[in-house]
């Protein structure tokens, strides 16, 4: 049987090098004691693993004179174990610790061939070049770091030739396989341990880990900071006894429950409120629960910021009363519950001060403001258990009465309010007299929108003023001339689409710094054959109530895309056009396919179309996320309109794929007069930029507002300061012909 090629090649090299086959060639290179100790130290883990499995091999072959030799990747011998007789005999062969075995120095040898061939080898008897080794059988193989596939060293076994057996090579391969797997496992465990330490100590979350009985086994630094409990005081205690999280962990450990984003509040040792989002879940090993994992995320700052933001957005700075936005939301909630079948009572008292303008003009705004504060205090004094008082703006206040026993309560409250004004108000040592005109509206037994209900009360208030002031008037059908005209308008609205009576006007959106045209917002107008050009406030609500809003919204999208493409063909620099989506349109199942079809038909690049949604549209959270992501896939932009006046603004900013945030004009209009509105605007711009979104301020009407927004890095401006909404022809004269 022919020897393997590598043995033939090695022996040939020995002959050509002039080696004497009758004399053993001794190693020429040796590690110094310091080098040897350093190498052994570096290989300590490897040698301990090799030693463990070598001893198992030697035990399995007990009684056989075997020597196990380990080298590093360069052939330096680092350890030898085995039969003492063959161990002493091996010294004459130059097998000494620290010696380097190479083919060039020591001729054909099992250590060098194992490292060179990178495979298990046998070197038996006269396969050795040197005749003194012909009585020796050797088996060897290299071992590796399997994760990085780099060579670590070799293991060889040597024995008298009479004990040779090919099975030894198979046994050696199995040993090396075990060594490599053990080394890999230890390395992975070290990595895992490091990662665990990093996770526990570097995460900004508080981590708690328990065993299966609830005994706390880990409590990281952030958990200490959040809870103000030291690690030493918690480790070893049963987490189920915790007054804060004990009940959660009981359900995790006893029922296998999982908790996500549970909001928990507690006081720290200084009495300061801490608000956290808490997650907890069981830990399993081989399908057996072995403990529980808990995680705290401290959101105290975010929570207090959101509370402050919500307060500023929904309260009047002058009187500290709820504002228009607050009371409208409260009205909508009550009306929704009534329409859903809940047994609730609802009434409005719309209050307007008489002669307030005269007081303001004669005594100045400081007197007027102080009078409004005094009035709000006096009005607050007659609030019932289920009543809410708000300042609507200027000298207008509103009482929202809910869940009263009978309509007589409403009348009694109106009379009580009028009586509050019989005495004068002392303002800066001056006695000022004013009275109130009150419009009363009681929610009827048929569905009514919040806006229409408010109009009822408003109309009744104006009727009270017309009848001489200082009285209240209850809304009746006789006061509904405007409502009657709306009914006629609703009928005509149904024919408006078919008769092509709608037109779009376009309000420019301007870059705050460069003053360049960024885009337009498309705003619908109704060219009514009898009443002339009608603003959307006159008919959009009607369209929503009679179900036409979706068809009108689709017309707007189509018309805006056609017009934009027409302007591009005519040579206008391409810009974006924004269109508003109504709630009904947003919730229709064919919105995405319709937008895609319009873009295909008009050949408009999707990047030049932006759809605007309001926060209240997204109440159906999961569906909203789906729709917005699908719209983004089409390549169009998405803007949140009227930001700050809707529901859960911060949550939407975090999760929705939006590009632009439009600051509501109600904030911009009071920017220079109301410090809270200014705070909200600056906070919104900062928050949006940190989330990599652009900000559009609408309703900009003065140079002062522009300078404020420019100073605070608002990106885009829209409002009458630059331009009112213009017809397509007017846009072409300004932006196409020039």
From TrEMBL:
CDD domains: EAL (cd01948), GGDEF (cd01949), PAS (cd00130). It comes from Sporosarcina gallistercoris. This is EAL domain-containing protein. NCBIfam families: GGDEF (TIGR00254), sensory_box (TIGR00229). It comes from the Bacteria. Pfam families: EAL (PF00563), GGDEF (PF00990), PAS (PF00989). InterPro entries: Biofilm_reg_signaling, EAL_dom, EAL_sf, GAF-like_dom_sf, GGDEF_dom, Nucleotide_cyclase, PAS, PAS-assoc_C. Residues 344-477 form the GGDEF domain. Residues 260-311 form the PAC domain. Residues 486-738 form the EAL domain. SMART domains: EAL (SM00052), GGDEF (SM00267).
